[in-house]
Amino acid sequence: AELVYKKIDSTMRGNVGAEVLAAVEALEMRGAVVCPAFPEQGRTVTEGRLLVHGKPVDEALAGDEMPDSPPEADLVRALSHGLSEDVGLLQVGAMREGVERVNAALSEFAARGTRIVVADAETRQDLNLLAAALLQARDWLPAGSAGLAGAFAACLLGDEMPREVV
């Protein structure tokens, strides 16, 4: 396959860390960049924390139809559970410096042996930039919600995301 994408839930339901690491190992990739952001649906990642309409995911979904406790907002900690892996954080400030900066950061993570990296994304433009960077860094597995998948489609098709997402 020319491009592999690991789809995850925008609120991090499930055992995302183990699934992502298994995919990285099975595909013999350098690592994975995890970004569940979907700004059009109110899901953003800021300083490694998953927010739903501005509230940490665990607060926003508390009492919702969650079978267990709500997912943890701190994505670095959430992805580390049950794994003997360090999880890195690609903050939005570094990401907004451009594709080259993102890819340099990924190289730095790889040099330290970090195979799972959480990426901040607060806007559609952040997701588009992340997708463009990951299209160049093909040895990193993108793992995200429909928000990041849409950014890949926009990059590959040379089109902007529609204003309304249904």
Structural key phrases:
single chain; 166 residues; alpha/beta; five-stranded parallel beta sheet; three-stranded antiparallel beta sheet; 7 helices; 8 strands; 18% strand; globular; disordered C terminus
Report what the structure shows.
With 166 residues, the chain is of the alpha/beta class. The strands form two sheets. The protein has a five-stranded parallel beta sheet with strand order 1-8-2-7-6, sandwiched between helices. It has a three-stranded antiparallel beta sheet with strand order 3-4-5. A hairpin with a 2-residue loop joins strand 3 and strand 4. Helix 5 crosses helix 6 and helix 6 packs across helix 7. It is globular, with a radius of gyration of 15 Å.
Q: What structural category characterises the helix and strand content?
A: alpha/beta
> Which spans of ≥5 residues are poorly predicted at pLDDT below 50?
162-166
- Total DSSP E strands: 8
Count of separate DSSP helical elements? 7
**Percentage beta strand:** 15-25%
Q: Portion of residues in helices?
A: 25-40%
Tell me the strand order in the biggest sheet: 1-8-2-7-6
Order of helices and strands: EHEEEEHHEHHEHEH
Shape: globular
Biggest sheet details: 5 strands, parallel
Radius of gyration: 15 Å
Task: Write a concise synopsis of the structure shown.
The protein is 39% helix and 18% strand. It is of the alpha/beta class.
